[in-house]
Amino acid sequence: MHDSVRVGVYVCHCGRNIEGTIDVREVAEYAATLPGVALARDYRYMCSDPGQELIRQDIRDQDLNRVVVAACSPCLHEKTFRHVLEQAGLNPYFFQMVNIREHASWVHEDRRAATVKAKDLIRAAVRRVRLHRPLERRQVSIHPDVLVVGGGIAGIHAALTLANSGKHVYLVEREPTIGGHMAQFDKTFPTLDCAACILTPKMTAVKMHPKITLWTLSEVARVEGYVGNYQVTVRRKPRYVLEDVCIGCLECIEACVYKQAKVPDAFNVGLSKRKPVYIPFPQAVPQVVVIDPETCIEFKSGRCKKTCVEVCADRKAIDFHQQEELKTIDVGAIILATGFQVFDGRRLPYYGYGAYPNVYTALEVERLVNAAGPTAGEIVMRDGRRPRSVGIVHCVGSRDVHTNAYCSRVCCMYSLKLAHLIKERTSAEVYNFYIDIRAPGKGFEEFYNRVAEEGTYLVRGKVADVYPADHDGRLMLQVEDTLLGMVRKIPVDMVVLATGLEPQADAQQVRRLFNISCSTEGFFLERHPKLAPVSTFTEGIFLAGCCQGPKDIPDSVAQAGAAAGEALALIDAGSIELEPNTAHVLAEACSGCKTCVPMCPYQAISFNETEKKAQINEVLCKGCGTCVAACPSGSIQQNLFEDDEIFEEIAGVLEYA
Amino acid sequence: MGHPILAPVESETCQLTLENLSRFPEGSELLSCIQCGACAGTCPYGDVMDYPPRRMIAMMRAGLLEKVFASDSLLSCVACYACMAKCPRGIRLTEVLLPLMKEQTLTHLPELPAELQRALQSTLRYGNPMGEPSRKRAAWVKTAGVPIRILAEDPRPADVLWFVECYTSFYPRGQDNSRATARIFHALGIDFAILGNEEKCAGECGRLTWEPGLFETLMDYNMAVFQKYRFHRVVTSCPHAHNAFKNRYPALGFNWGLDHTTPFLAGYLAQLKPLLRRKLSYAVTYHDSCCLGRQNEFYDPPRLLLQTIPGVKLVEMVHNRVNSICCGGGGGGMWLDTYFKAKGYERLSERRVKEAVATGADVLAVSCPYEVPRFEDALKVLGHDKKMIVRDVTELLAESMEGNP
Ligand SMILES: Cc1cc2nc3c(=O)[nH]c(=O)nc-3n(C[C@H](O)[C@H](O)[C@H](O)COP(=O)(O)OP(=O)(O)OC[C@H]3O[C@@H](n4cnc5c(N)ncnc54)[C@H](O)[C@@H]3O)c2cc1C
Questions:
Q1: b vs e for A534-548, b when ≥16 Cβ sit within 10 Å of the residue's Cβ?
Q2: Hey, which residues does A99 pair with through a beta bridge?
Q3: How far apart are CA B74 and CA B53, in angstroms?
Q4: What average pLDDT does this structure show over A191-200?
Q5: For residue B252, which of B226, B213, B291, B214 has the smallest C-alpha distance?
Q6: Domain B114-266 belongs to what topology?
Q7: Which spans in B24-113 are helix H?
Q8: What pLDDT digit, counting tens, does each position of B103-148 carry?
Q9: DSSP secondary-structure letter at A102?
Q10: In sequence order, which residues have a C-beta less than 8 Å from that of residue A3 and are 6 or more positions away?
Q11: Does A153 sit in the ligand 1 pocket, CB within 6 Å?
Q12: Does domain A7-137 have CATH number 3.90.550?
């Protein structure tokens, strides 16, 4: 077979990206001298149509049967070139890509050394491609249902888009209601629409939609399978109220033996109290109460008078014996929309959150200005006073290497929004202490302008210290007004911390559950920041909203639409081809030691008890190679990564030119 | 914070100076400054400085540094690490930029402030800023009431080399601290020894007031003495010395274990507890020293120790932990009081004791030998010396140990 091998090598300039650092002509001339190479060329853009055509033509005219392209990352163009081979009638796996951009030209400055390195890498590829065997892709059908995890605005929008196209959607939300953070706001920047007025219709639409199965108080417990055919196990926590029986009359709350609400209300960020039986907020979806077993007397002592059950009477909607349920569903695609958590202000003790009662977080103030909030929309402080002056501190827990180095993107705008709302409701003097105002969205600069004209004081400087100004609860903000070049001490009644957006506390667990990656700051990582912004490195799993990074509602919704579109494109194809780079057991050599079985991250390996051999399900195998490396007898091989191919590659790279 | 800086690369030929700053990571760090002003806003003298770090960096980028040196307001930098702790870009202001700038400012001054000049000269000549004869450094040992081994007399290996430092050797109220430490070490059965008259100031203040020549002389000297003896770890009563050993001495091969007395003793909490039998019915407020707190984040050990003393009630000042306000003694401030006064600057020790008094506490507890004289003096000046006393944490521990067999 080796004798008849005819390799074509193509060295891409990638504009100046490669050619600027590597002598591509010299590399191509060198490649032409390698054993088995029939021809070598360099070309400006191999991925362009003429570049591709060049390969096709050479395959036809020069009888090539192996191709090596030295260009960018295989993540970007391996598919392109394999397709070129296919078009020219060759098996697409008679191809090897060499990354001389990310691995050479972009990371080196020394032209000589980078050129030598490119030659080494190409030599290795040529040696291994000669051993490549033809491989076939496998076709599998795709399950048309979709799972959406997280019922914030992003999850809601994605679910509705998919359901409207006729797909069945499971929407899994861990709280008792959907709505996410947006449900907690009063108005939204930059248009100041009422958050509830635009959100609740979509929440109701979810509930009413015949194509959406909504599971609240639920979390994903297990994910198995692969793109197109995921089996997902969902844990449904008991609500202790029958969802299809409760009509949301709320009389049980009234009747609860707790006359006073005593439990901090999470929806109001602890600014008010609720009873053990409660509904998060009036427009919650589903409109069903929930019983919190941690505080309900019946759960604690078993001896409650159960006035709630009495008042519910014949409906019998309350069920103290409800149990946790595990449901398994089959879906073809998954959209993660698990959102964010707000930065904990206590982590910056010099801003006094938690120490001084009149220091608030922005989310708390969102609840204060909300008509359905703990103060019915009145801005009154914990000490009962209305503030006459308010200082909003920007960038709390953002743009700071001690906390989060990134910009949280929405805080400037929501701070301006809060400044407007506070001024409108209280006529207080409002100061915004900012480092830079970031207002890059549509209508944002105009909104900034408007708030400035309303007379909000904009002080450029990062607040350095917050401490009591006197004994009446007033607080001193100490800051350098960097435009005046002087340190100012400004006393205010109320301090609002514009706390940033962070990955959810359990983002790492969720990441592992779905086998995706996180970026350094802990948000879920998209496959490509520009070209695959809602895809992940795991096929069939998509991202929407703030779980991917801080963003505002318009961007969250846009991303949710994009994720729904990607999921649709996948499902509507009906079937998908799986890459053949899977592992397989050489049955005659397998000693049946089972080392590999627990190692597989995808549960693709099982043990055949009758034959006492390991077996790999090629559909589940993702080609990670773990079992290949772990097998003590070397009896697992992986397509495209067979031992002889890898050894040839290593020998090739080490054989200095 | 607090990791050794530049240590491995620094050599005679490769000194970090303002001119070559851009060749070091510390230099490109400066370029990332976003001009937020957190440094100026938090600086205890931010309102009197013509060029707080933010403006200094802006001037530097604009090539206008000469103007900065022409102002002497940078002398008010007390090296308290407050700006560095809050800089959102993590720029090592207190460790790198400010000392370099201060060095230049000092050379531009027509003459050094007299008090500072004297202290630096004395340190060079006698190894301590008070100008006390070095042969009397260990004189206090006789008053300790417990045996203290001096290595020159008995060079057997020791577990702990206790680096006593200057204020704690010469100054009477500092000696109280040393006597207390010796008694506690003794009661805990720690195998310790001191250098006695061989010891000289570790020189940390020499560095932060930027007198690099002086600092290096002291560093060479102390290292040579260390190398004569065998011991496992160095424990020092002075946070400034601790700072020098941790960040600067490793360049010369300092690789022994290191601790400051307060965190060191906190490691012996279980053994200390039964010894603390006498009830001290004090309300105590603790002042976080800059070097121990912000620079090393030893916020809990002193508080743990205080709370272990029976009867002590711990109350916090408004500015505590990372937000603590400097006593004004660092960066040479110890010897610039007269100079600052002439300039009309508020004394930071007075600002600090006002906060301490406002807590209603009886005792202001400290962990740095500079703070005792500074705060005692400030209390006197403000007429609060009847209301509040100043005690090192070790003094309080020893007081509670009294009456032990
Ligand atoms: C104080 C503040 C004010 C703001 N104001 C505005 C504004 O005026 N205008 C604007 O455009 N943007 C604003 N934003 C930004 C806005 O909140 C976000 O853009 C938006 O909420 C993102 O929606 P999301 O669905 O991605 O995430 P979220 O709203 O966080 O929703 C995520 C949902 O997923 C659920 N979930 C999380 N993990 C799991 C799990 N493992 N399993 C099941 N469910 C899970 C959560 O319970 C939640 O319901 C503001 C942000 C803050 C902090």
A1: bbbebbbbbbbbbbb
A2: A71
A3: 9
A4: 96
A5: B226
A6: Rossmann fold (3.40.50)
A7: 25-31, 38-42, 53-61, 65-70, 82-86, 98-108
A8: 888 888 888 899 999 998 999 999 999 999 999 999 999 999 999 9
A9: I
A10: none
A11: yes
A12: no
Contacts with B34 from chain A: Cβ below 8 Å: 399, 435-436
Residue A1, exposed/middle/buried by CB under 10 A (0-12, 13-18, 19+)? exposed
Provide the token pair at B17: 């100076």
Say yes or no for a CB contact (<8 Å) between B88 and A395: yes
Interface of A with B in 434-473 (CB under 8 A): 435-436, 460-465, 467-468
Sign, CA dihedral B350-B352-B357-B358, equals: positive
CATH number of A138-237+324-339+506-575: 3.50.50.60
Candidate of A189, A343, A361, A410 to mutate for ligand 1, largest count of ligand atoms within 8 Å of Cβ: A410
Please report residues of A whose CB lies closer than 8 A to that of B89: 401
In this complex, the residue of B46, B89, B90 whose CB is nearest that of residue A480 is: B46
Condensed to tens digits (0 to 9), the pLDDT of residues B309-318 reads 999 999 999 9
DSSP calls for A342-376: E--GGGSGGG-TTTSTTEEEHHHHHHHTSTTSTTT
CA quadruple A518, A521, A522, A523: dihedral sign: negative
> Which of A63-72, A401-410, B13-22, B260-269 has the lowest average pLDDT?
B13-22
Of A350, A468, A482, which is closest to B37 when you measure between CB atoms? A482
Write down the pLDDT at residue B14: 53
pTM: 0.90
Domains A7-137 and A343-502 share a fold: no
- Residue of B34, B41, B89 with shortest CB distance to A480: B41
Helix (H) or strand (E) holding A541: strand A541-543
Q: Is B279 exposed, middle or buried (0-12, 13-18, 19+ CB in 10 A)?
A: exposed
* Element spanning A233, H or E: strand A229-236
List alpha helices for B78-203, DSSP H: 82-86, 98-108, 114-126, 167-170, 172-188
DSSP state, residue A487: E
Return the H-helix or E-strand segment holding A389: strand A389-396
Residue spans per domain, chain A: 7-137, 138-237+324-339+506-575, 251-311, 343-502, 582-638
Percent of chain A with pLDDT over 90: 95
- B93 shares contact with chain A (CB less than 8 Å): no
Identify the residue among A399, A431, A462 best suited for mutation to test binding to B, counting B beta carbons within 10 A and taking the highest.
A462
Q: What's the rounded Cα separation, in Å, for the pair A488 and A494?
A: 17
- Whole-number Å distance, alpha carbon A553 to ligand 1 midpoint, is 8
Give the Cα separation of A581 and A576 in Å (integer): 15
CATH 3.40.50 for domain B276-400, yes or no, is yes
Put simply, whether B300 touches A (Cβ < 8 Å) is: no
Residue of A nearest to B88 (CA): A400
Do residues A448 and B9 make contact, with C-beta atoms less than 8 angstroms apart?
no
Helices (H) and strands (E) in chain B, counts: 19, 9
Q: Report the nearest-CA residue for atom 34 of ligand 1.
A: A150
Closest approach of chain B CAs to the CA of A478, in angstroms? Answer: 6
Evaluate: CB of A154 within 6 angstroms of ligand 1.
yes
Q: Which CATH number fits the domain A343-502, given the four candidates 3.40.50.620, 3.40.640.10, 3.50.50.60, 3.40.50.1970?
A: 3.50.50.60
Helix (H, G, I), strand (E, B) or coil at B211: coil
Q: Is the pLDDT of residue A513 over 90?
A: yes
In tens, the pLDDT along A396-410 reads 999 999 999 999 999
| Tokens representing residue A259 in the block | 């006359």
How far apart (Å, rounded) are the C-alpha atoms in residues A340 and A353? 20
Nearest residue by C-alpha to atom 38 in ligand 1 = A338
